Amino acid sequence: MKQIIAANWKMHKTAVETTEYCRAIRQMEADFEGVEVLICPPFTALSAAAIALEASSIKLGAQNMHWESQGARTGEVSANMLLEFGVEYVIIGHSERRHLMGEDDSQVRRKLEAALDNGLKPVLCVGETEAEREQGITKKVIEKQLSGALEDQDPHKLSGLVLAYEPVWAIGTGKAASVEDAQEAAVLIRSYLKDKLGAKLAESTRILYGGSVKAENIGSFTVLPSVHGALVGGASLEVESFSSLIQAARKAVIT
Ligand code: PGA
């Protein structure tokens, strides 16, 4: 399975900065062979990214979307608006949206369904907070998030689905999860998929790790048998650090 290395820029970069970044990174794309590289800029920079990445193998993703296709939803953006820029992936249920914007499981589910209905590939994020881990309820939390979004879905519709395990305490803290914790969560997610949605989907779904990933540690995650890439925040903001991270991921898989 081809691994995905996804850049989640969050609320960083103007359209001008995006153009500059994308022009620079596409000069290096010959070195990205074997890896699916994905950039998720803010909505306002999607157009600039789409133009700068035209005819490149680097894919475009969005960080969020609304489930309605149009209407009175001030400040929201729909799937068809994203498709206009050639967006292929969309991050759904990132912990910053769950915890800072109050997004709940039923909203996450509606977004996931709308993404799939419109042919977008959702990158569904799950993960526990530090307090939840300390209480020993990590497994319960992840299973609840998975059920909230995926229970009773038609497995045939989920073929483009990507999962991302992102422990909240590891995001932006410089304190990545241990390799054992990442592997354990990925195995848990895969067995949930197998039990609820069937072996075929469980085998074909890519599970990413996210949370303080950098060039120095990515290889230890991407060599794991259950992990197929990473969702990267801080270390994706500079072309050089993102590109060396991609190289490190490739090297780890090849060797
Ligand atoms: P980080 O963010 O790499 O800065 O920890 C990851 C994410 O939130 O997707």
Verbal overview:
The protein is α/β, with parallel strands linked by helices and 255 residues long. The chain has one domain (3-254): Aldolase class I (TIM Barrel, Alpha-Beta Barrel), CATH 3.20.20.70. Helix content is 42%, strand content 15%. It has 11 helices and 8 strands. It has helices spanning 15-26, 46-52, 79-83, 95-100, 105-117, 130-134, 138-150, 179-197, 199-204, 218-222, 239-254; strands spanning 3-8, 35-40, 59-62, 89-92, 121-126, 162-165, 206-210, 229-232. An 8-stranded parallel barrel has the order 1-2-3-4-5-6-7-8, surrounded by 5 helices. The site of 2-phosphoglycolic acid (PGA) has 13 residues, from strand 8.
What would a concise description of this structure say?
By secondary structure, the chain is α/β, with parallel strands linked by helices. It is built from 11 helices and 8 strands.
- Unreliable residue stretches: none
Secondary-structure element order, N to C: EHEHEHEHHEHHEHHEHEH
Count of domains: 1
The SS-based structural class is: alpha/beta
Q: How far do the termini sit from each other?
A: 16 Å
In percent, how helical is the residue content? 40-55%
Biggest sheet details: 8 strands, parallel, barrel
Percentage of residues in strands: 15-25%
How many distinct helices?
11
Q: What gross morphology would you assign?
A: globular
